[in-house]
Specification:
This protein is α/β, with parallel strands linked by helices. The protein has a single domain, classed as Creatininase (Rossmann fold). Helix content is 38%, strand content 8%. It contains seven helices and four strands. The radius of gyration is 18 Å and the shape is globular. The mean pLDDT is 95. The protein binds zinc ion. The site of zinc ion has 6 residues, from helix 2. The site of zinc ion (ZN) has 6 residues, from helix 2.
């Protein structure tokens, strides 16, 4: 397994080259409704990155960095147990990370993000790290959230953005002992289904907090989730990521 943190220091110059790609998984520790654990996004980031590096690490010269568990989860700050960085802390942390990684022979850094609340900030960080530290930076999601153009289950009206069918299926596959399906219920805010413009993925963005849509904190319909769907979704995501990385491998510009 190409696990970067398990290397000894002399191995860096032997094994990590200018062609290597660093994979930085990013999760979150945040409420996911009454049926899923705090570490849902951390588990999804970690497991998809591991599977990617396990299956395609040699082919694509990938090195897996340790998963960042905490991230920018201020939309869930109302819920005790959510542990979050502010946007300024998160950007500062990513800048520090870029400074350290820019010392390595590898020129390319890929954020593999499993928490939709990070996406805007990670795009900002990608450009900052490109400009300030000279790295070629990329942002990939194992699963693009429906409010950012990804798909949602047919039962969810495009609203499966947090603790819904997909995340619940993934956790039933990856950590079934932490899921309580007896607490799973649909939460599909009607206004967001009927609005033409002010909706997830609509022309008007809005600064939402997850308790704006009900007291439970999830948004979507987890009730028909299955472990089999979770496994199929994860396998498909890993192949999609490998395809993206084949293009990243050939993509210029390189290190400045
Ligand atoms: Zn999540």
């Amino acid at each position: 397994m190409r696990d970067f943190a398990s290397l000894r220091s002399p191995q860096v110059s032997e094994l990590v080259s200018g062609e290597s790609i660093l994979i930085q998984p990013i999760g979150a520790i945040e409420q996911h409704g009454p049926h899923l654990p705090f570490n849902t996004d951390q588990v999804i980031a970690d497991e998809s990155a591991r599977s990617l590096v396990e299956h395609h690490g040699e082919e694509l010269d990938l090195w897996l960095l340790p998963t960042i568990a905490y991230s920018k989860s201020d939309e869930h700050s109302w819920s005790d147990g959510t542990i979050w960085f502010s946007s300024t802390t998160m950007l500062a942390m990513l800048d520090d990370l870029g400074r350290c990684l820019a010392r390595l022979p590898s020129a390319r850094l890929v954020f593999l993000n499993a928490h939709g609340g990070n996406s805007s900030l990670l795009n900002v960080a990608c450009r900052d790290l490109r400009r300030v530290h000279g790295l070629s930076t990329f942002l990939l999601h194992p699963f693009i959230p429906p409010d950012q153009g990804g798909e949602s289950a047919d039962t969810e009206q495009g609203l499966g953005i947090h603790g819904g069918h997909l995340e619940t299926s993934l956790m039933l596959h990856l950590r079934p002992d932490t899921v309580d399906m007896s607490k799973a219920s649909p939460n599909l805010p009607e206004q967001l289904q009927t609005n033409e413009f002010v909706r997830f993925g609509g022309v008007s963005g809005f600064g939402w907090l997850s308790d704006d849509f009900g007291p439970d904190g999830h948004i979507g319909d987890p009730t028909s989730a299955t472990a089999a769907e979770g496994k199929a979704a994860l396998d498909a995501a890993v192949e999609m990521l490998a395809g993206a990385l084949r293009e990243i491998r050939e993509f210029g510009p390189r290190r400045r």
